[in-house]
Specification:
This protein has 895 residues and is α+β, with helices and mostly antiparallel strands. Helices cover 48% and strands 10% of the residues. The strands form 4 sheets. It has a 7-stranded antiparallel β-sheet. A 4-stranded antiparallel β-sheet has the order 12-13-15-14. It has a two-stranded antiparallel ribbon with strand order 8-9. Helix 24 runs antiparallel to helix 25.
Length: 895
């Protein structure tokens, strides 16, 4: 770094050079303080020269020997104290100069200077110095804690409150409490106050203990959490001045209810103490001090719990012998009480692992899986004791929160080995569970297992799981396989309570002249969660859920629940229908139409009697969604069949708008029917049907070779031919079209022979809108002209095409269509892109037959437009006539 400024303030006059800041050529070790508090210490000698006393890091600390706050500089080389100077309360003693220098004079007359490496470090120490000086002005005359007695508790509380206001006062209190063993002397006063029933002193004790705890010092925590002190600390915290008429019973709970049990001896005193300490810290955080904790204390206690958890889990993961003994108890058939204790131990252990980092959790669950963690669920999920079932459900939930593919892989391994899979056990427990809270948790477990959208590899843990369980394949493949097994074998078992529901045997109840059936608490809870799972399946498993709904007629069964007495069951059933409609899938729409679902929904809506409740609003939301999304099938079905249910509903506009939407659909349908009933004697493009054209096709012959008619004229070859063009764009020889060439679109082509001179009725001209991309077409369209035949007796060969083929403009060579009308150019490009005109009734000509070329007529340049037509034999010229936008007529002279 750069050296300090060139002028340094000195207490005594001297012309010696100023002290220099420490160099950055050799940075301090990382374990030391930040570099911004790195300083050089200088002392002014008798000759007026600044002597370098060493380089280190400065801090403001409390020193008991000097009885106050001091400047302390420790060497960066060996951590020895380079400078220890008590801070004077007199603000005029210290001077700050040039951003990096602090100089002062000791009471003994020695002059010192601190030269900082960074200006920010100098600023920080200067601010701390000012705070200390202000604090020292407010401190009372006493500089040490009074001895704790019943007579001076009020003085002690005042002393602690005064020093607790600043960081330096907290540091002073921390050192004083540790060195004087103040806490050990204070705690015995609890028994004296309780014996004397001195409530005011008990409140003072409670206030003093809270101030001490909120100092957030690790040494103080170790003292109050020790076996000798903790019960007295908890006893003092039972008293609270804010609640004078009530007293907590923390000691009774800890002595009678909270017991530390070891299923198997841990044989490690350090781990045992950490387990006990973690419990006590948790009790303080969550119970005794829950209302009073500040952010600093809460963070400190959480840190203690977190690091203790790491040590505890690491110990058990490394102790394979201990885990073997634990799971051996679970696999034995004896000692049911011991098994319960093991389950509770694993529950606690998994709860601890939930707070660990992902890597640590990976190692934890991998170790437990190798020792047979999943084998416990078949026994524990069906246990008679609710606490055991609750613990097993919590363990399974913790595993799924970490990685659901672990459980799926285990289920697949069980199926492959022809064992009962875990998913079957879970579903059975879901159906037979009597505790509604546990059933809800199991329902969430099923959802997590079926939610395969995020089933991706979880690092090396995923591979480790498959190695342990014997499952193979990628995670996505495993997820699909798991879903396939579930929908094939277990979905029916899951939905059976709703599908097999017999409402006739259930008790009936009449409310407002409406008869409902009563499900009861357990069956109501089960049906509610099944409806929730059906909604989940519809949203996430589209085609698999459709098969089950169609095959089991599930929507019909769910519709029965709309007559249940319990309102939330009717809402659950309505939620299923709303989910199906929300998918906007014709399958669900048709299913609901065929099962008369809307009749049940509208009946339930009418039974609300226009009350402003959730069921009424949910029904209105369903029909409003149908209207807004314009679901024509459902709109027509509802209005045509069930209009009587909502004709009188006037307090909302939902059904009025629905009827209006229906009438609009009917008008559109009627207009479509009217347009469909127009005479079919005209083609779509306005040309009249020509019976001669149809007769011509009916009299075609199918010879493989070139055929002639009765007058000796040659007929058109059947096989379309391709034209090979040279690089200049001129037509080359005609060759048969290969089998791999692209097929032309299927259009209707009609060929008509007319004698020259006969009147040819031109088709009505169509409106040709200009194309923005090709402005040249407008000029081409305006240049359309009729080309007449040259010789008498020639035949006109008409080609009718219903719709133009798409134009492949990329295949048109520049100048290739010069002189042709735009329609001709377009059709020419179409023929080049899709092959020549073909007739499916005719045979292909022999590849060896050569056909004479067609001589173009007039100014029309030779192109590949008329590939098939130009293959006609003995043709002198090819007059071209273009009329309209969709029809071409060619006149061909036969010799």
């Amino acid at each position: 770094m750069d050296t300090a400024p060139s002028a340094a303030a000195q207490p005594s006059s001297s012309s010696s050079p100023p002290p220099e800041a420490p160099s950055t050529s050799s940075p301090p070790p990382a374990s030391l303080l930040p570099t911004r508090k790195r300083v050089k210490v200088y002392q002014l000698d008798t000759e007026g020269q600044w002597i370098d006393k060493g380089t280190g890091h400065v801090a403001c600390v409390l020193d008991q020997e000097l009885h106050g706050m001091c400047f302390q500089v420790k060497s960066e080389e060996d951590a020895s104290v380079v400078l220890l100077s008590r801070i004077s309360p007199d603000s005029g003693v210290y001077q700050r100069q040039q951003d990096t220098l602090i100089v002062w004079s000791e009471p003994s007359g020695e002059d010192y200077a601190l030269s900082f490496q960074e200006a920010q470090g100098c600023q920080d120490i200067w601010e701390e110095l000012e705070d200390i000086q202000r604090t020292q002005e407010r401190l009372p005359a006493a500089t040490s804690l009074p001895d704790p007695t019943l007579g001076n508790l009020k003085v002690i509380e005042s002393f602690l409150l005064q020093h607790n206001g600043t960081p330096y006062g907290k540091e002073y209190l921390t050192q004083s409490l540790s060195e004087s063993q103040f806490i050990q002397k204070l705690l015995p006063l609890l028994n004296d106050c309780e014996d004397l029933e001195n409530t005011e002193d008990l409140y003072l004790l409670s206030s003093i203990i809270r101030i001490i705890i909120f100092l957030n010092d690790s040494h103080i925590y170790e003292t109050i959490l020790s076996d000798d002190a903790f019960m007295n600390v908890i006893g003092i915290l039972e008293y609270d001045r804010d609640f004078p008429n009530s007293k907590a019973s923390y000691r009774d709970y800890l002595n009678n209810d909270a017991k530390f049990k070891q299923v198997i001896p841990i044989n490690n005193p350090e781990i045992e103490s950490k387990i006990v300490q973690t419990y006590r810290v948790t009790f303080l955080k969550d119970v005794a001090l829950a209302r009073l904790l500040d952010d600093g204390t809460f963070s400190t206690l959480n840190s203690m719990i977190f690091f203790n958890h790491i040590d505890i889990v690491s110990h058990f993961l490394q102790n394979d012998e201990f885990l073997d003994k634990i799971f051996a108890i679970l696999n034995s058939e004896d000692e049911p009480d011991k098994k319960k204790e093991v389950i509770m131990f694993l529950h606690e252990l998994c709860g601890i692992a939930k707070t660990l980092q992902p890597i640590s959790r990976n190692a934890f669950y991998r170790s437990l899986a190798q020792h047979g963690l999943f084998s416990i669920f078949e026994y524990t999920l069906g246990h008679d004791d609710t606490s055991v079932r609750l613990a097993a459900t919590a363990i399974l939930s913790n595993i799924l929160d970490h990685d659901p593919s672990l459980v799926r892989s285990f289920c697949l391994a069980q199926v492959r080995s022809q064992q009962r899979p875990l998913i079957d056990v879970i579903i059975e427990r879901f159906v037979s569970e009597t505790d509604t809270g546990l059933r809800m948790q199991i329902s969430e477990i099923i959802k997590v297992l079926l939610d395969t959208a995020g089933s991706e590899t979880n690092g090396g843990f995923e591979m480790a799981v498959r190695n342990v369980t014997g499952a193979g394949g990628t995670p996505s493949a495993e997820a699909e396989e798991f879903l396939g097994i579930f929908y094939e074998s277990y979905i029916s078992k899951l939905t059976a309570p709703v599908r097999d529901l017999d409402t006739s045997s259930l008790p009936k109840v009449t409310i407002d002249e409406t008869v409902f059936f009563e499900l009861g608490e357990n069956l109501s809870s089960l049906c509610h969660h099944i409806c929730d799972l059906i909604c989940f399946a519809v949203k996430n498993h589209s085609y698999r859920s459709k098969y089950h709904i169609l095959g089991s007629k599930l929507l019909d069964k769910v519709g029965k629940l709309l007559k249940a007495k319990e309102s939330y069951i009717r809402l659950s059933a309505l939620k299923v229908f709303r989910t199906c409609v929300g998918m906007k899938d014709d399958f669900y729409n048709r299913s609901m139409v065929s099962s008369e679902t809307f009749k049940l929904i509208l009946t339930a809506f009418v039974e609300t009697k226009a009350r402003y409740n959730l069921l009424n609003s949910a029904c209105l939301d369903l029909f409003e969604f149908i209207r807004k999304e314009n679901m024509k099938v459902l709109i027509c079905h509802v209005v045509e069949n069930y209009r009587k249910y909502f004709d009188d509903v006037g307090y909302v506009s939902t059904f009025t708008s629905l009827v209006q939407k229906y009438e609009q659909l009917q008008e559109v349908q009627k207009s479509d029917e009217d347009s469909a009933t127009t005479p079919s004697t005209l083609k779509r493009d306005g040309w009249e049907k020509q019976e001669d054209d149809e007769a011509y096709f009916n009299t075609d012959d199918d010879d493989d070779t070139e055929n002639t008619d009765a007058q000796g004229n040659a007929s058109i070859p059947e096989q379309a031919l391709e034209s090979t063009a040279d690089s200049s764009g001129n037509n080359g020889s005609l060759v048969p079209k290969s089998a791999d060439a692209p097929k032309p679109p299927s259009v209707l082509r009609k060929i008509e022979f007319v004698k020259e001179g006969s009147s040819v009725v031109a088709p009505p001209k169509l409106v040709d809108y200009p194309d923005d991309d090709d402005s040249d077409e407008e000029d081409l369209i305006s240049s359309k002209r009729r080309i007449t035949p040259k010789r008498k007796g020639s035949l006109v060969f008409n080609v009718h095409k219903k719709a133009p083929s798409p134009i492949n403009t990329s295949s048109i060579e520049p100048g290739q269509n010069d002189g042709l009308p735009s329609d001709t150019a377009a059709i020419s490009a179409s023929k080049r892109g899709h092959g020549a005109l073909e007739s499916p009734d005719r045979a292909h000509p022999a590849p060896g037959n050569s056909l004479p070329e067609v001589e173009p007529a007039g100014a029309v340049p030779p192109t590949t437009t008329d590939t098939a037509l130009s293959s006609l034999p003995d043709t002198e010229n090819t007059p071209l006539q273009v009329q309209g936008n969709t029809e071409i007529r060619k006149k061909v002279k036969f010799s």
